[in-house]
Amino acid sequence: MADPWLVVGLGNPGPGYAGNRHNVGQMVTAELAARSGTAFGSDRSRAKVADVRLGTLPGGLPGPRVLLAQPTTYMNVSGGPVAALLRYHRLSPERLVVVHDELDVPFGDVRLKAGGGEGGHNGLRSISQAIGTREYLRVRVGIGRPPGRTDPADFVLSDFSTVERKELAWLVDAAADAVEMLVTQGLAAAQQRFHSP
């Protein structure tokens, strides 16, 4: 029996942050939980967790077991809950997928990668420090660069624009599809689909 995946959606807690660009990772994990008809429950690791099966394997078999997690801490200390969940479930970082907003990817695009730098993303930096490696999978949800001289920190902590909100459900859906494909078919297959022009 294969180990489950841990899929973490990054964001900040509370209704005041819910619509922020920085919270798109949590929007994606909420969509995945909704698809499986599973609610998030509280967990002693300072995260909300939903235990689901994602996607379908060849032959129509149910997809792999996935622990969807939303840290209930602030973004810049996401690493503690993620490390606690990995320890508790005895999972290696290779089974970790982090879904997060990405300034360096145009709004509406989804990119996947394994390892690499954090690109100034405080949530990723906290996770890398807490688990002692950068070698985990990322689903990068494009939010684009801030307009004009807008401070990137202010940009990520503001809500999506009216125009973007019209496309947001589609983007969240695509990112959720990317997570499903990643855990059922692997990184290369998911990259081929989502990185193609």
From TrEMBL:
Its main location: cytoplasm. The active site is at residue 22. It is an enzyme of class 3 (hydrolase). Gene3D superfamilies: Peptidyl-tRNA hydrolase. The record marks 101 as: Stabilizes the basic form of H active site to accept a proton. The keyword Translocase does not apply. Keywords: Cytoplasm, Hydrolase, RNA-binding, tRNA-binding. PANTHER family: PEPTIDYL-TRNA HYDROLASE (PTHR17224:SF1). InterPro entries: Pept_tRNA_hydro, Pept_tRNA_hydro_CS, Pept_tRNA_hydro_sf. It catalyses: an N-acyl-L-alpha-aminoacyl-tRNA + H2O = an N-acyl-L-amino acid + a tRNA + H(+). Monomer. TRNA binds at residues 17, 74, 76, 122. It is found in: Cytoplasm. The record marks 12 as: Discriminates between blocked and unblocked aminoacyl-tRNA. Its EC number is 3.1.1.29. One of its GO terms (molecular function) is peptidyl-tRNA hydrolase activity. PROSITE patterns: PEPT_TRNA_HYDROL_2. Transmembrane segments: none annotated. This is Peptidyl-tRNA hydrolase. Belongs to the PTH family. Hydrolyzes ribosome-free peptidyl-tRNAs (with 1 or more amino acids incorporated), which drop off the ribosome during protein synthesis, or as a result of ribosome stalling.
